[in-house]
Amino acid sequence: MGWFGGKKAPSNGTSNGARQEATTPQSPPQISREDKAKVDAAGGVPDMTALENLGEWSMLRNLELRLIGKSEPYTLVSTVLVAVNPLKETAKPDFKSFVDASWDPTRPHPNQLAELAYQRLQGGRAPDQSLVVSGESGAGKTETSKIVVKYLTQRGTASGAGDTQLAKRISAVSPVLESFGNAATMRNHNSSRFGRFVKLLFAPSGKKVVGGDDLLLAGGALETYLLEKSRVVRQGSGERNFHAFHMTLDQRPSRQLGDRKLLLDPSKHAHRSMPPYGQQMRAKAGLEHVPEYRACDQALEAIGFDAATKAAAWDLLGGIVSLADVVIKVKVDAASQEDVADVELDGACLRAAKLLGWDVSALSQILCERTVKMRSEEVTVKRTPGEAAGARDAACRWLYGALFEKLVVQCNEALDGGLAAKSTRFVGILDIFGYETLEENGLETLLINYANESLQQLFCDAIFAAELQLYEDEGILTEEDAKALAPPDSTATLQFLAGKGPPPGILRLLDAQCATGGTTTGKKTGQDERDSRFLGEVARVHKGNNSLANTKPKDRRYMFHVQHYAGVAGYTVVDDSQKEGHEGWVVTNLDQVPEGLAKLALTSTVSLVKGLEAVGQKASNENQNRRGSMGKPKTVASRFAASMSELTKVLEATDCGFCRCIKPTPKMVPNEFDGPYVAEQLRALGLVAEQL
Question: Do 441 and 218 touch, CB atoms closer than 8 A?
Answer without folding.
Answer: no
